[in-house]
Design brief:
8 strands; GNAT family N-acetyltransferase; alpha+beta; about 30% helix; Acyl_CoA_acyltransferase; eight-stranded mixed sheet
């Protein structure tokens, strides 16, 4: 799989993957991404900002995520303790095509983000998810992210929602 910065022609596939993720979470009773977010406009803005990435398998989009190397307001609400206090990157909106699950793709996305963050001079990578999102919790913990505490989202359609936050220190 090749991970590349997303281009406008990827947005249809990106939206389809996150729409399926929304449906899957609803079916599992997870109240995450159930308010019309992320949508096409979210991905278009991320593509325009150069923050959206896709995993390509033989040219087909099979995974998506957003990478940023700037502080996030929600992470200032942490009830707990971060492992580091230096510059960090964030990974958000991770989703994998359901037809490709079980192939370790999410781990490849995390590895890419950590390598990019290290190259960008970051000391860690932070990520958050819904308390009930057991599949994502397992994935982040399996990759070595450590639970740091609870946060409250501060922006966007899910502002006010509680999430659990993790951090991976880069070596």
């Amino acid at each position: 799989m090749e991970i590349v910065i997303a281009r406008p022609e990827h947005v249809d596939a990106m939206t389809a993957i996150t729409d399926q993720a929304c449906s899957n979470m609803a079916a599992m009773g997870i109240d995450q991404w159930q308010c019309g977010y992320p949508d096409r406009g979210t991905w278009e803005a991320d593509v325009d900002a150069g923050m959206a990435y896709v995993g390509l398998d033989e040219g087909r989009v099979v995974a998506v995520f957003r990478y940023a190397d700037e502080p996030e307001a929600a992470y200032e609400t942490l009830e707990g303790e971060w492992l580091t206090c230096g510059p960090y990157a964030t990974v958000h909106r991770c989703a994998v095509d359901p037809a490709c699950r079980g192939r370790g793709i999410i781990g490849e996305l995390f590895a890419f983000a950590c390598e990019k963050a290290a190259a960008d001079g970051m000391v860690s990578v932070r990520i958050d998810t819904h308390h009930d999102n057991a599949p994502m919790r397992r994935a982040v913990e399996k990759f070595g992210f450590a639970f740091c505490g609870d946060i409250t989202l501060t922006e966007g359609p899910e502002a006010g929602a509680a999430r659990i936050a993790f951090e991976k220190v880069l070596s």
